[in-house]
Design goal:
19 helices, elongated, 20-stranded antiparallel beta sheet, alpha+beta, about 600 residues
Length: about 600
């Protein structure tokens, strides 16, 4: 064989081996659970074609649950894998509770790569006499149409055996099956005594709630549909045949999908005006829609080795202007150096006045959300008797940080740190004047070898005595003597002004530079997966803030019960704002789950 021929054969053999190796590597990595780090297998929910354009809420999982389970097993610590597998099995069986069906045998063989749940309408029949009856649609992709039809057949057989009567309907080429609705039962009017003049009292207007009618269909051998009313399925089929009616034709929905940087394993899309109307049980004033700053919110879910990443896009409502904005920070603010590492809740950023204006205007049309945000401010307003947005937020143009400090069996303390500017110097002096006008005594203390101003109900004599005690280093005694009477303290440290709701909280803030939140391993892990260029952070140490948040937000317990295994794994939650393009505000959320042996 000639030398040239030998090399030609050798090169060809190497190329073939490389091609086979690359193909095998791609096949292995594509099927590896870790491939989910790159996102799901689709660019968006295909089931959006069934969902109406004005649907209040749509939630989609864009990957087969078995791949998620495999991913969790890969990244879990070896000692936690058995518990993880048991939690997942418990969740699977709970989804089919009281149906007599088995997830692994009856569902897993045909389940595809998408599950979409939608609240399609706040009121399906739009009949005031029947009350508000929301429409729900569940669309599940099937990879084995025959097995999915067998599942539906078995599902209905078990319901018939339990006494359910079935109805069959052929609608535009699709077979609908649903349980025969029972006549709604009208509530009885309370008995009333007739008046002596025999004039009959006017009849009471009764609202009759229609019975929920479970309905199913298989569409184009691609999706198995479930709904709480046959009309929801008919509307879903209409949306497919008239594409302009479906969610996919919504400009806001398309803009939201295009705003995400990579493919997602899950997607949440909320139509805020429609969602507000549903949550208020139809009592929301339609005229307030024009004042909404945002029209919709999209949340794209992704995976990291340490938890879940959520990209969010807030889209401006028609007529509202949201100019393009770039992130103001490239690293955590210096104000965080005065937040103790023990703080379970903290927020930091720049230009508090602008941030508060954006937040308050964004939630003003949503009563429940506005109340949730205003509640902690009202607590501080009542304690300090100050209008916080006007008296404090208005002059904070530079860096700021605010944090909650727990106290055993007492209301938690607050610490607020603001960068000093020329405007801040005048405003802080004005705060002392306002405190005096409201009946507080403003006096000096020495705490951790630093001068501190206190707003208190005590006179000058106790303050001087307390100051002497502090100078001797016994600050704990000082806290015991006057903590109950102190309403607030503030001190100047370098280029920052620190405010606190108690002497003990101020002492922790002054000593925080030795053990600050920004230098703690927990906080560093909580922000590691987020972009460095941002507008600041909202940080929750879930393990240490859980009990406090449950006291402040009672509904949180119900949310936890719905997905208990997830909340047990959650270590921290961090939110950051990223600015955005014209008409869109972007942010990211990182949910840090339990540590693993994997790096």
């Amino acid at each position: 064989m000639k030398l040239r021929s030998f090399f030609s054969v050798l090169v060809a053999s190497v190329l073939v081996l490389l091609l086979v190796g690359a193909s095998g590597f791609y096949w292995l990595t594509a099927r590896s659970p870790l491939a989910l780090l790159r996102g799901g297998s689709t660019d968006g929910p295909a089931a959006a074609m069934f969902v109406p354009k004005q649907a209040p809420a749509v939630v989609s999982l864009l990957v087969n649950p078995e791949r998620l389970e495999a991913f969790r097993q890969v990244i879990a610590a070896p000692g936690a894998r058995r518990q993880s597998r048991a939690e997942i099995e418990q969740l699977k069986q709970s989804l089919l509770a009281n149906t007599g069906l088995d997830y692994k045998q009856d569902v897993e063989p045909w389940l595809g790569d998408e599950i979409t749940l939608a609240l399609t309408s706040p009121d399906v029949d739009r009949d005031a006499q029947t009350g508000q009856q929301p429409g729900y649609l569940l669309a599940i992709a099937t990879q084995n149409p025959e097995r999915s039809r067998e599942f539906l057949q078995l599902f209905w057989q078990k319901r018939v055996a339990a006494g359910t009567r079935l109805m069959f309907e052929q609608y535009k080429g699709v077979k609908l099956i649903y349980s025969q609705p029972e006549p709604p039962v009208e509530p009885q009017k309370p008995e009333t005594k007739r008046k002596k003049n025999k004039q009959q009292e006017p009849d009471t207007v009764l609202t009759v709630q229609p019975a929920t009618t479970l309905s199913t269909a298989v569409v184009s051998d691609r999706f198995v549909l479930f709904a709480n009313q046959p009309k929801v399925l008919r509307d879903a089929i209409n949306n497919v045949q008239a594409a302009e009616l479906g969610l996919g034709s919504s400009p806001a929905y398309q803009q939201a999908l295009q705003s995400f940087k990579q493919r997602q394993i899950g997607l949440v899309f909320l139509n805020l005006p429609q969602l507000a109307a549903w949550s208020s049980q139809g009592t929301a004033d339609a005229t307030t829609e024009a004042s909404n700053l945002y029209e919709s919110v999209a949340i794209g879910l992704g995976l990291s080795r340490k938890g879940l990443l959520a990209e969010t896009a807030f889209l401006a409502a028609p007529g509202q202007t949201l100019p393009a904005a770039t992130p103001a920070l490239s690293k955590p603010t210096g104000a965080l150096a005065y937040i103790p590492a023990s703080s379970p809740v903290a927020a930091a950023g720049t230009d508090l006045e602008q941030f508060w204006t954006q937040v308050s205007s964004g939630v003003s049309s949503y009563e429940t959300l506005a109340q949730l945000i205003n509640q902690p401010l009202n607590n501080l307003r009542n304690a300090w008797q100050l209008d916080l947005p006007q008296d404090i937020f208005s002059w904070v143009k530079g860096e700021y940080a605010v944090a909650l400090l727990p106290r055993p069996e007492q209301q938690p303390d607050w610490v607020f740190v603001a960068e000093r500017t020329e405007a801040a110097t005048t405003a802080i002096a004005n705060l002392d004047t306002l405190a005096k006008d409201k009946g507080f005594s403003v006096g000096p203390l020495t705490l951790a070898d630093r001068p501190v101003s206190a707003w208190t109900k005590l006179g000058s004599t106790p303050l001087k005595a307390a100051s002497k005690t502090t100078t001797e280093g016994n600050s704990a005694l000082l806290a015991n003597v006057i903590a109950a009477e102190v309403e607030g303290v503030h001190a100047t440290v370098g280029n920052y002004e620190i405010f606190a709701t108690s002497v003990a909280a101020m002492e922790q803030a002054l000593q925080a530079t030795k053990d600050s939140l920004v230098d703690s391993p927990g906080f560093k892990a909580a922000i590691a997966a987020l972009p460095k260029d941002n507008d600041g952070y909202l940080y929750l140490d879930w393990a240490n803030s859980r009990s406090i948040l449950e006291q402040q937000l009672p509904f949180l317990r119900l949310v936890e019960l719905a997905s208990q295994p997830f909340w047990n794994q959650l270590r921290s939650l961090t939110v950051t704002s990223l600015g955005g393009e014209s008409g869109v505000r972007r942010s990211e959320v990182f949910l840090n789950l339990s540590p693993t042996d994997k790096a």
